[in-house]
Specification:
Layout: E1 2-7, E2 12-19, E3 23-31, H1 33-37, H2 44-65, E4 75-81, H3 85-102, E5 106-110, H4 111-117, E6 130-135, E7 140-147, E8 150-156, H5 162-172, H6 179-187, H7 212-227, H8 233-262, E9 266-270, H9 277-289, E10 293-296, H10 306-318
Parallel strand pairs: 1-4, 4-5, 6-9, 9-10
Antiparallel strand pairs: 1-2, 2-3, 6-7, 7-8
Helix pairs in contact: 2-3, 4-10, 5-6, 5-7, 5-8, 6-8, 7-8, 8-9
The protein binds 5'-O-[(R)-(carboxyoxy)(hydroxy)phosphoryl]adenosine and zinc ion.
Length: 343
């Protein structure tokens, strides 16, 4: 059985074909980053209009690459939220229309469940149960994953998301949108003892995060260097490096705390920030120290893509969880309200 998966929650249109026995068969992505970059961030209306242009050609492309006809699909999965409402509606309408025409089910997928399960696209893949760290542009969460669909929230950010902190810091350093990958490159030449930025909430016994104070500390450092006329490339690089160290340390500490709560030996790390090599290395080392293992998706599946939606959609399809005929999307949608997947 093969499902078509569509992603259109933000600034990337993704399509993929997933087979319940063979796994991922084909995937394709169109990124809107160059289009939004000139505005310094995502312009929702432009995003929706671009998704409209891309979605049908991407469906054709993955179907051709998989050597299939549209009639061969068992279902169509689409991101139903959370995300930008106009962008979500494009994928939802395309999936619903296709499902209606082909007389197959349409499966609404939670974007963060897609991210959370993306490391299962890899070989070897993590086994349930596990503890998950979700670090994306809009979310920072630690989750006790007791089984497929059983997500118990252990902690989350009280202000900015980790990806948002990367993006805002990058902006202060005059890097293009989205800042994360640019900041990662800039940090490579930086001196990690040049600054010591705060690691907020490490003293608190919870698995919650806060990144707003870190952003302010970076702002102060940038302004001080500017005022003294020494905000050169090396100083920018030092700030990027010390910022990354602060985020990485915070993530490591909070994961440790969560793992103590769950007694798990398996850590799954997902979402855009999990593409960061410093973050991957630190969390891999943490799990090695604890006699466990950290799992990540390949970098291209850490950020938004259709493959993760097709995979999560197949799990929901096999559990018989089809959406109602009415097109409904959810710009806000708590992950721990999802139905269980295996009874
Ligand atoms: O998961 P994602 O594609 O979108 C959401 O669902 O929110 O994550 C995008 C976020 C952006 O904030 C981006 O700057 C960040 O992930 N990101 C990175 C890296 N690649 C993407 N942050 C740090 N290092 C990276 N290499
Ligand atoms: Zn995402």
């Amino acid at each position: 059985m093969r499902i078509l998966g569509l992603e259109s929650s933000c600034d990337e249109t993704g399509a993929a074909v997933y087979d319940d026995e063979q796994g991922l068969i084909a995937h394709a992505l169109h990124t809107q980053i160059p289009m939004h970059a000139q505005y310094g961030g995502v312009v929702p209306e432009l995003a929706s209009r671009d998704h409209i242009k891309r979605v049908v050609p991407l469906v054709r492309e993955v179907t051709r690459r998989a050597g299939m006809q549209l009639q061969d699909y068992c279902a169509v999965a689409y991101t139903a939220g959370p995300g930008l409402i106009g962008a979500l509606l494009v994928g939802a309408m395309a999936a619903r229309a296709l499902a209606y025409a082909l007389n197959i089910p349409a499966i609404p997928v939670h974007h963060m469940e897609g991210h959370l399960l993306a490391p299962l696209l890899e070989d070897p893949k993590p086994a349930f149960p596990f503890t998950a760290l979700l670090v994306s542009g809009g979310h920072t969460m630690l989750i006790d994953v007791r089984g497929p669909g059983a997500y118990h929230l252990l902690g989350q950010t009280v202000d900015d998301a980790a990806g948002e902190a990367f993006d805002k810091t990058a902006k202060l350093l005059d890097l293009p949108y989205p800042g994360g990958p640019h900041l990662e490159r800039l940090a490579q030449g930086g001196n990690s003892s040049a600054y010591h930025f705060p690691r907020p909430m490490l003293d608190r016994p919870t698995a919650d995060f806060s990144f707003a104070g870190l952003k302010t500390a970076v702002l102060n450092a940038v302004q001080a260097a500017k005022a003294e006329g020494r905000l050169n490339d090396q100083v920018k690089s030092d700030i990027a490096r010390c910022f990354t160290d602060a985020v990485t340390d915070t993530l490591v500490h909070k994961c440790e705390r969560a793992l103590k709560m769950t007694h798990s030996k398996t850590l799954v790390v997902a979402g855009g920030v999990s593409a960061n090599q410093a973050v991957r290395q630190a969390l891999t080392a943490l799990m090695a120290e604890r006699g466990g293992q950290a799992f990540f998706a390949r970098p291209e599946f850490c950020t938004d893509n259709g493959a993760m939606i097709a995979q999560a959609g197949m799990m929901r399809f096999k559990a018989g969880q089809y959406g109602p005929l009415a097109v409904n999307v959810f710009p806000r949608w708590p992950l721990d309200t999802l139905a269980l997947l295996n009874g």
